[in-house]
Amino acid sequence: MLDQKTRELLKKVRDEAAEKGVSASFTIHREKSHLMRIGNSSVSLNTSEELTRLDLRVVDGRREGTHTHLVELDDPDTAREALDVAVKKAAMAAEKSYQPLSETVEDDMDESPQFDSALANLDPAEKAEAYAEIFSRTGDRYNYSGSWSSGVTEIYMVSTANEREAYHVGTDQLFSVVLKDPDGSWELRDDQTGWRFDQFSVDDTVRRLTSLLPVFRNNRGFRVDEGEYTVVLGSGALSEIVSFAVFTGMNGRMWEENQGWTSDRKPGERIVGDNLTVIDDPGNENTFRFGFDLAGKTRKSFPLIEKGVFKNLMYDISSAARFGKEPTGHHTRSPSMVIGTGDGPGDPLQAVADEPRVLWIPALHYMNMPSISRGIFTGSSRFNALLVENGEIVSPIFSTRITDSFQNVLNNVRTLSSTEVSENGSSTYARRAPVAMAVPSYAVIEGVKITDCAESF
Amino acid sequence: MSDHPEVQRQVESGIDHALAEDADYCDVRFYSKDKSEFLLLYDGNLEANDTGTESGLGVRVLWGGAWGFAASSDLGSIEETFRRAVRNAKTASTLVRIPLDMGTQSPQKGSYESPMKVSPFEVSLKDKLDFLQRIDRELEEDWIQRRMLRAGFQERRVRFWNSEGSRIDKHLCNVFGAMMIMGMDEDGRMQRRSHSLFTTGDGTRGWELMIRPELFSSHTERIKTELSQLLKADELEYGKRSVILLPGQGHLQVHETIGHPLELDRILGYELSYAGGSFVDLGSFGELRYGSEKLNASSYGGVANSPGSFGFDDEGTPEKNYLLIDKGILVNALTSRAMVREANERAGRKVFEGSGGVARASSFYRAPIDRMTNINVEPGDDGSLRDIVEATEDGVILDNPTSWSIGSNREHFHFGCEIAWEIKNGKRTRILKNPTYQGHTLEFYNSLSAVGGRSTWRVEQVNNCGKGEPNQTMEIGHGVPVMRFDDVVTGERG
């Protein structure tokens, strides 16, 4: 954990910079990460990293420079040297046509809203034991893979704009297991997420996997013809589609520059169905909560879509400066997006009991956008995807591609589950960045365009 | 290692410690300096002026058939990093059904340097910005709404040791560049054209690569002309037709549907929970008709000037040149040491001769996994682009991806591109916007009907290939010619 000495060291260098008239921000990103990877029913990698990064940004008039140093911060000279790099970069940079904004810690903050020492200090042996129990209870004949990432993320930030300091520490985990049938080509997956170790349960995973096994064992895959279908999107698929929609539709820069799919619409206009509400809510417990962003802005509940109406645009510190707006607290890798729940029953099969044929697609693989400005996205079904008729599961479906638009899909949401779940969207590219979205456990959507289907899962 | 004698001593002592703890194998990578720089000119404003410096040590230990890995940027904790790696491996070994085995390899002593005249880190920021701003001014027009110029530089010095006695030094340099312009079409939607710095496969890859006009800066007028036509263009209509992929698009097609499905760790199921699997299995090698007879694909680490060239991989295997697909038949995969041994054992026969030298890690704090090197399609005998166009009845030429989405086993795909040129009866007729195409991998490559000659071949650089958990982004090269495929589904249904 970041000690007081490191904080004092950084404040000292901050104060020195301020005295020299340098406008700078100093952010420490510290992670203690562990990941166990499973392949072929074995631990294929058991890895731990403890890394500290110092991110510096210097604004010099209309010039700016940033420098990141991955380093052990035990000496003020290390921070001074890194600052010097950023200062020189800013001095040599080209002037912008507008005035860049400097990071400012808005409120003193020392937060640990989601820290669990049991998860922070989890013995990797417990992970191996949990996997072994899952294999044994679900069936040793299957081939298992998966991963279990857990760790601690600390962020500490000061800037020369004032003497305030902001500190965050939190834990997060993402567990997955994939079961592959040795005789067939089908696979099942189960995920768990959370910030406390006790949120993980072997029983839950075993129950969910074993409930699906007969469907996949006893039925061959169904090849879906091209056409329009009523689709039950699971929380994974729903969160993926809405994430893309929000970050290409409510992103201030994309909207201002006419790049997004909402660029021909204005806040206040209806853009999707009136049963859809999306809020960035850093207080939601099913997300990973960060009280401040990387510009020092205190994060608050921020409506993006309210009952189908376009409410607000997100501006990070760069786009706010460029377009003369106030930063909205979105200079962050860890937003807390929340899709409002509906009144659908907890069981999606009940929600489609009267439908003769429905596709149940829990998650989308490799989603992308062939046309951002037209809101067109594409992605294919992967694990646990099913054909449902009259509320009964009939068979698994082969890898099935959806190519559709946000406007069509989000305007045709017939039912949203009344149950909220957490969908983990974290990545570990370069640095630990926990992010989770709070979403209804499913959505029933009519008229979804299926454009291709493989002959395999 | 004369500049880090204490690291050398502690690493050798650490390897001894791991072996004394009965480790089967141990390797270590020390990044004494890993520098990166990213510059972004956005509408003339320097929106990114970023540098990064990393240094540290990654230790990988195989114990009881399982990997443990630990990394630290603190050179004061080398001993503890080794201890942690051993501990992690021992824990991992408690759950092993198929023990991993590296086999043995003769110790490698050597070094590799990316061919380079001028390090990009020796060029002043002012000179770099002068260069980018000059291009930016050439791109500037009233009707162009967005201009983006990106430049990325990497330089890293890596020392590798393993418990077999290998000692390898690498000095790697990468230079990436891209330009993009955007404008509003007649439907009020943004269209774009872009160009990325490519290589011919020859020459050097320092700053001098960036400033070779024919590879980068001289393409401004071309993309402006194409964008201006795109803004008035009709949309590509849905239908089956031939598609001719220029290298700007063909390289991504090859990357996603030849490179990834032929990574042996994917084939063996080690990436199932994240990146996905592969439609290829161990019975496919020597048997599967992957494509038409015109398809020859290779893994070639030795392309002189490419980010996919690195001398030795991150487990001490020298880079190799070998065919993956020979006249359409699948013959080999992208392989590393433990994966080859496991595959041969599972197949009950020698499917693979030895490691293809593809184990790479993106940084000191990530463990090596199977990565692409230079995954190339060999030039064919169908002449120039013009020759191929003249021999095409009904088709489109496609260039530069806007979107890529691939099935989890790489069995099907959907791509969006920036631009299409319609071809009717051997002639280019008009430019079309919003082109997309989709297909099933084997059917698609079996429809390969023309492969351009050497004059159409070039190395496209990739700097954002994501794979693995923890996630890793890798640099890769793809040498590809112009290729034509027939009866491909293009465009979207209304």
Structure report:
The complex is a heterodimer of chains A (457) and B (494). By secondary structure, chain A is an alpha+beta fold. Chain A has two domains: 4-217, 2-Layer Sandwich (PmbA/TldD fold); 227-453, no CATH class. Chain A has ten helices and 22 strands. Chain A has helices spanning 4-19, 76-92, 117-120, 124-138, 202-218, 235-249, 252-256, 317-323, 348-351, 406-411; strands at residues 23-39, 42-60, 63-70, 109-114, 143-159, 165-180, 187-194, 227-234, 278-280, 302-306, 309-310, 337-339, 358-361, 364-371, 376-381, 386-389, 392-396, 400-405, 413-416, 420-424, 436-440, 442-453. In chain A, strand 6 (165-180) and strand 7 (187-194) form a beta hairpin. In chain A, helix 4 (124-138) packs parallel to helix 5. Chain A starts with a helix and ends with a strand. The mean pLDDT of chain A is 96. Chain B is built from ten helices and 24 strands. Chain B folds into two domains: 5-232, PmbA/TldD fold; 235-490, no CATH class. In chain B, helix 1 (5-20) runs parallel beside helix 2. In chain B, a hairpin with a 2-residue loop joins strand 2 (45-63) and strand 3 (66-72). Chain B has 494 residues and is an alpha+beta fold. Chains A and B meet through strand 1, strand 2, strand 3, helix 2 and helix 4 of A and strand 2, strand 3, helix 2, helix 3 and strand 17 of B. Strand 2 (42-60) of chain A pairs parallel with strand 3 (66-72) of chain B.
Strand content of chain A: 35-45%
Please describe the biggest sheet of chain B, giving its number of strands, its sense, and whether it closes into a barrel: 7 strands, mixed
Q: Could you give the distance between the termini of chain A?
A: 44 Å
* Total number of helices of chain A: 10
Low-confidence sequence ranges of chain B: none
How many domains of chain A?
Answer: 2
Q: Give the strand content of chain B.
A: 35-45%
Rg measurement of chain B, Å: 24 Å
Profile the largest sheet of chain A.
9 strands, mixed
Question: Would you tell me the structural class of the helices and strands of chain A?
Answer: alpha+beta
> What's the overall average pLDDT of chain A, rounded?
96
Overall structural class of chain B, as computed from helix and strand content, comes to alpha+beta
Largest interface comes to:
A-B, 91 and 90 residues
